[in-house]
Design brief:
By secondary structure, the protein is α+β, with helices and mostly antiparallel strands. Among the domains are: 62 residues; 101 residues, Pdz3 Domain (Roll); 195 residues, 2-enoyl-CoA Hydratase, Chain A, domain 1. It has 14 helices and 31 strands. Strands 4, 5, 8, 9, 23, 24 and 30 form a 7-stranded antiparallel beta sheet that branches. A 6-stranded mixed beta sheet has the order 19-20-21-26-27-31, with helices on both faces. Strands 15-14-16-17 form a 4-stranded antiparallel beta sheet. Helix 2 runs antiparallel to helix 4, helix 2 packs across helix 7 and helix 4 packs across helix 6. The N terminus is likely disordered.
């Protein structure tokens, strides 16, 4: 069981630099919906963002309330989730704006409605609960009535509604904002919502929420002017199961309205909500509840999708001191270090991990990883299949190069984030006559330009982007001959629920060449499924402007600045907060940057200490000389 839940225990720090980061069918950007590409100063670009590591969960505890499993209870929670999301993010009352503790609002709401026995009773309870928050919202059973909306006694002075640029989830990323905007009531613009024409949000079970997306303002206060309920922001204790139910609802709701990729992923997000809630209602331990939350995140198919435990710090996640790779459709040892060298060899095929086949064990890990492509999920899963508690043993059955099989017990004695993926040449080394190698995931920002300067006129340069770069994109200005732009970084501008009528602001930016001629005429970039986000920003520029050949495998297929929300369960969850399209407007998410010269590592080369992709890059340069 422990191994089954390792996904929640394991995630090494992954820096995600993202600067070069709808009815049910979201509106895609068109020429009219996307602003022209600006040339932004560095301070206005989407900024680098570092994700904290995924941390171990809190110790498993017995539930403090028994699980309830009726279909009606599940329907009650689904209806609450749908209404909560629209009220929180799109109902512009002063009362909504005054809430500072949405965790408590959601948990008390769950407790208020979860045991409703009929849809009519649920409607009454929802109306009673949301009245102090959203006094012009009505839940109706049966045929929805758009005329059942609040009308003020006197002519209003203003109208007010929410306007989201991305969405401000945790007041953490300045790039994303959410604010209420006002207009004069007598002459609203075409883009402003009409309070008399409310939004109809189906809740299920024959219930519909009638939600005005703009609210009347009189005397500086939204109407009807009622006193804010001070108890809304008061913290009270709740059952731990309720914390997890609330966490599912809050994460589902914010992504339902603002995640930009539902039209290109294979996900039924409404079904995912029901499955996650049902999983928590029908299980009894925190470990199981955390898995349900993790599965919800995985259903987004988002390479930035991460769940971290905020109640722990400095996670100690250990593994045997070896690295694994996916070579010729097999799990293979790609690196051995320290004492592990005496037991396994590079090129050994891993047949079993414990009692499971290595392939099955790998797939089990991949099922709980959020990723847009199989190559990225596999990359992360390979890091985790051997991990566990310090000084415990991992049992492996391996097949050596001579065909013999051996079952080994390897001690988990090394911090997971200290294990390199494999051995690579030294940075800036000469890997062939006049051909120099630059490993961008280990390059040092303060010295890279000085190091590169010495290679002017070189026979060839090989930039390794099989991983996440540690340097700013300025080095690219030494290898380009004309002004280049990044791909399209489109921040959703949202005033409607459920991703309806979204427009986009393009935050692409440009780079200018700094040399009369690039450092070298022969440049090759190495890449694979480890390259995500900022790495893909660079690779997309290389691909579009044909700066050099791309050797290796497709990238991770996820780019764009992240967003983050803290949840009542003690976790933070991350996801991609903006839409990134290729330069020509085609899909990037789930596709990635494709190599111009596809090459995969071979088992024979691995056993001889040859990096197949690096050797292909060297050969390519030598052929062009």
């Amino acid at each position: 069981m422990f191994l089954k839940y390792l996904f929640c225990l394991l995630l090494t720090s992954l820096c995600l630099l993202l600067s070069g980061c709808r009815s049910e069918e979201p509106v895609r950007p068109t020429a009219a919906a996307v602003s022209p590409t600006p040339s932004l100063p560095a301070t206005d670009r989407p900024q680098p963002t570092e994700l904290p590591a995924t941390l171990p969960p809190r110790p498993t505890a017995a539930p403090t309330s028994p699980p309830l499993t009726s279909e009606q209870e599940l329907a009650n929670l689904v209806a609450f989730a749908r209404l909560y999301g629209v009220v929180r993010y799109f109902h512009a009352s002063d009362q909504v704006d005054a809430v500072r503790n949405w965790d408590q609002v959601v948990m008390r709401g769950i407790e208020a409605v979860r045991d409703s026995t009929t849809p009519d009773e649920l409607a009454r309870r929802l109306n009673d609960y949301f009245a102090p928050l959203a006094p012009t919202v009505l839940v109706i059973s049966g045929e929805p009535d758009e005329t059942a909306v609040f009308q003020p006694d006197t002519a209003p002075e203003q109208l007010i509604m929410w306007e989201h640029y991305g969405v401000d989830a945790d007041n953490l990323y300045p790039l994303y904002t959410s604010k209420r905007v006002r207009t004069m009531a007598g002459n609203p613009s075409d883009s402003f919502h009409d309070p008399a024409r409310p939004y109809l949000q189906p809740l299920g079970g024959g219930l519909t929420a009638v939600v005005p997306l703009a609210v009347y303002v009189q005397g500086g206060k939204t109407q009807p002017a009622i006193s804010t309920d001070a108890s809304l922001n008061q913290a009270t204790s709740h059952a731990q199961q309720t914390e997890y139910l609330a966490s599912v609802i809050m994460f589902w709701a914010i992504t339902q309205h603002f995640y930009p990729y539902f039209d290109v992923i294979d996900a039924d997000w409404n079904a995912s909500l029901g499955q996650a809630l049902a999983a928590i209602l029908n299980t009894t331990t925190e470990a199981e509840w955390e898995i349900a939350l993790q599965q919800l995140v995985a259903d987004l198919d988002d390479g930035h999708g991460r769940i971290t435990d905020l109640t722990e710090s400095n996670p100690a996640i250990y593994s045997p001191f070896i690295s694994l790779g996916w070579v010729e459709e097999q799990v293979v040892v790609t690196g051995t270090f320290a004492g592990a060298r005496n037991l396994v060899e590079v090129g050994d095929i891993v047949l079993k991990i414990g009692a499971e086949t290595a392939v099955d064990r790998l797939q089990e890990e991949m099922n709980l990883i959020s990723g847009a492509t199989a190559q990225f999920k596999r990359h992360l899963a390979l890091q985790r299949v051997l991990a566990g508690q310090r000084y415990s043993s991992a049992t492996l059955t391996v097949q050596h190069a001579d065909g013999t099989e051996e079952t080994l017990m390897l001690e988990r004695d090394t911090l997971l984030n200290l294990i390199p993926p494999n051995e690579r040449p030294a940075n800036y080394s000469e890997v062939a006559p006049g051909v120099y190698y630059i490993n961008l995931p280990t390059a040092v920002e303060s010295t890279i330009e000085m190091e590169l300067a010495q290679f002017e006129g070189a026979n060839g340069l090989i930039f390794d982007l099989r991983g996440y770069p540690t340097v700013e994109p300025g080095f690219m200005e030494l290898v380009i001959s004309d002004t280049v732009s990044t791909a399209q970084f489109l921040i959703p501008q949202t005033t409607w629920p459920n991703r309806e009528n979204v427009t986009y602001d393009n935050r692409a930016w440009t780079m200018e060449p700094r040399l009369e001629a690039p450092l070298s005429e022969n440049i090759v970039f190495l890449t694979n499924g480890q390259a995500i986000s900022y790495a893909e920003t660079l690779m997309a520029v290389v691909a579009h402007y044909q700066i050099g050949e791309i050797v290796g495998e497709p990238t991770a297929g996820t780019n764009g600045n992240i967003n983050r929300i803290e949840l009542p369960s003690g976790h933070a969850v991350f996801w991609t907060g903006m839409l990134v399209l290729n330069h020509d407007g085609s899909q990037h998410h789930g596709v990635g940057v494709q190599p111009t010269v596809p090459v995969s590592q071979t088992l024979a080369d691995l056993r001889q200490g040859i990096d197949t992709q690096l050797q292909a890059a060297i050969t390519l340069i030598e052929q062009k000389r």
